[in-house]
Amino acid sequence: MGKTIIEKIISNHAEKDVKPGDIVWMHVDVVSARDFGGPNVIKNYKRYYGDTPVVAPDSTYFTFDLSTPAKSIKYATAQHLCRQFAYKHGIRVFDVDAGIGTHVLMEHGILKPGMVSTGTDSHFNILGAIGVLGQGMGDVDITYIFRKKRTWFRVPETVKVKVKGMPEKYTEPKDVVLYILKRFKTSFALGKSLEMYGEYIKNLDMAGRITIASMVTEMGGIVAFLEYGENFKDEFSKFTGVPPGELIESDSDAEYSDEVEIDITSLPPQIARPGAPWDVVDVKELKGVKVDSVFVGSCTNGRERDMETFGSILKMNKVKERVMVRVKPATRKVYEYMLDTGLISHIFKAGGIVINPGCGGCAQGHEGLTGEGEVQVSTSNRNFPGKQGRGKTYLASPLMAAISSITGEILPPEEVL
Amino acid sequence: MILKGRVFLVERDGRLIPDIDTDQIYHNAYLHITDMEEMGKYAFSNLEGFKDFSKTSHDGEILVVGSNFGAGSSRQHAVDCFKALSIKGIIGISFGAIYWRNAINNGLAVMKCPELQSYLDRGLLKNRMEVEVDLENGVVKIENKEVIKCIPLSKVEIEILEKGGLLELGR
User: Which positions in chain B touch A122 (Cβ < 8 Å)?
Assistant: First the structure.
């Protein structure tokens, strides 16, 4: 019987044929720890293994992206503890200037399709965007991987998702993934691997693939693999600087636990209401809601194209009075792009600010939290109560974030642009 | 791998309590505690009817729990507090996924036994009864008589438990 993508990747890394439900040891190609979780990994490591060298320093990384640069003594100390451990063991550190760990690992050509990678970030499955089985894990698991370069894993079942049709002109990948969350919440993806197919999916650029893959975390899924289109090899090489190598695809007789179809024909822009990322409605239903602040960034919408979409609208407009706009590129590379193309200047002159690269807008320790009573439109991925501060956070695309920046309201794009 | 011990039923009016989340097992007010021995004091201290759980000895006991045990956060305290009390293992109708992984990683034996409730209902499994838990074969023997069919653990999980946890296995 044929295999799905995840079954093939795990079989390759367990050195035996696996099927859903099997629990196996799986080799991990690349492991990382952040400034969040990293200090506990080091504490565990020293306690159990003392000075024993880390087994594969060349494919072990620290990535600082939570508090960058450190905004409290606690984080400054945590980061320096990681640095000292890393330098002693010959591990590379992507320091506070680098950006979001998962993005940095992809950009540097460290990861290739078919690999397995783990880290202390619950959005590690974002790596599905480039065909990598990425998994966020706790500090005990990551410590063991530092030591042994393997982890134990239950082979999940796979759900086939067919995305049908093409959306409206102003509808972005963020709107599509919010719509998928609205339709299914966590019902079909919980504990499963997803494979997504369709014209729309396979023609996405890298930024779009990343947006969709990142929100599988909110669906409760293990990872999502997106159909490779003709443009994938070019997109990958442009993004990482290296060729992708062989692409793993599912067998024609692979077995799926479920098949679902999602029709996005003429889908208009979507927005998630405060409280849950799956409480999603058409933007026009919230027409006229007043907005105090806007955040653009996060692992979901922090790429060059996201910044381009947002910045090109701000270039010709001014940020509405009394609206606060913060923009946080995902990585140093995105920041450089914004510098070279003038996007930073456009956003700045329109009345927004561009802050340093990294994670943002979704946990304490990040920039871009909201105060009690504040209404925010954010391109991030989570808006559970308290997650982005005390205010009310709507989740939307960079295009919708731009609309709210220049009008101070939630409005359908066709009424503004 | 076989565990022997007396059972402690986490039940209310004869029903194994479902959906006990990690906040009921180990409340977030005590997350700052890092000493494992001290964590024992707060086991179930936020579960209605079990506030005095840690005041009596549970040395060598096997906990019997309901469905979706340990749902919620990923805190390892919710596993360590039972280890601190020298509880040998937990058999339950089902477990939260993260709790299950934390338990194995920290060397606390767990096993899924979907039919547990019916043994309580028929009076075949009562508090303090002696049981033998066979993790490899997925079987619980009650006082050497009744046998409950459970879901066996994988070889990998048993390998980790036998060493006393994932980090011990890395030594």
Answer: none
